[in-house]
User: Fold endopeptidase La from Mycobacterium saskatchewanense.
Amino acid sequence: MNRRIATLMVALVPIVVFGVLLAVVTVPFVSLGPGPTFDTLGEVDGKQVVAIEGTQTHPTTGHLNMTTVSQRDGLSLGEALTLWLSGQEQLVPRDLVYPPGKSREDVDKANNEDFKNSEDSAEYAALGYLKYQPAVTVAAVTDPGPSAGKLRSGDALDAVNGKPVANVEQFTGLLKSTKPGDVVTIDYRRKNEPAGVAQITLGTNKDRDYGFLGVAVLDAPWAPFVVDFNLANVGGPSAGLMFSLAVVDKLTTGGLAGSMFVAGTGTISVDGKVGQIGGITHKMAAAHAAGATVFLVPAKNCYEANSDNPSGLKLVKVETLGEAVDALHAITSGGQPPSC
Assistant:
């Protein structure tokens, strides 16, 4: 082997080693970037993203897109460098996304639960805005449990043993006078079905000495029709605001978005308060790329949103569902909504 070839091979060794390291070595970082957007007024896989059955709905126009953040885990050193150099992705320590002591499955499960809770809160917030009256509402039924097969999530509970209940405090107060083994009569209303009466034998629960009904309840606006949200493989609570707006839009006349392409983000509480979210700049970039011209921003995210606002995207500040509806009405009528 002549000296020139030997020198070349020696020089190639570190390059080959570095190439192997780029491909094989994983880094303790997760990349965050713009994710897909979904029109809450539209369809996904042949189903309406927000479907309402059992009452009249009204035609909608324009777009009300919820936004997401894409997430990549298990990055190789080469992938991490490529994403970082692109300038479109953010690398964050993996422990911030997947805390030590929690598996990826644990985190994904929590995100899915947050998303389901955001759907429930979105429905309640919209119904409250539309002035539907509150009721003692079943949020979940323990299965197996005393009420499984007799009560359902979404039922409104009106009376216990013939005594009317107007709120959770009254409902719980009546249950506290019972003991395990007692049979109670529950008057309830069910969505898209006739009202009914259930006879339930109370069970036991280590957390209380009175009878266990096996339902989680809350005070929430109640309507006799069903609202379904048909969007899978999305986690976290930040779709709440856009889901609520879609419900309001479908149950009222006029079209909230007009002909506009509106996108946005924000958690929603049962009483309609819009909360702060993460990844606002990634969501704005996704919305802009999808064609949005208006973006609804939770008030507490405004400072960050202004730090990297894509050209041509109007930022509208919102603190409540009512403010978001008013802002959209202002824009479609030529007015000026609150801005970040």
Summary: The first strand starts at residue 29 and ends at 39. The chain has a mean pLDDT of 88.
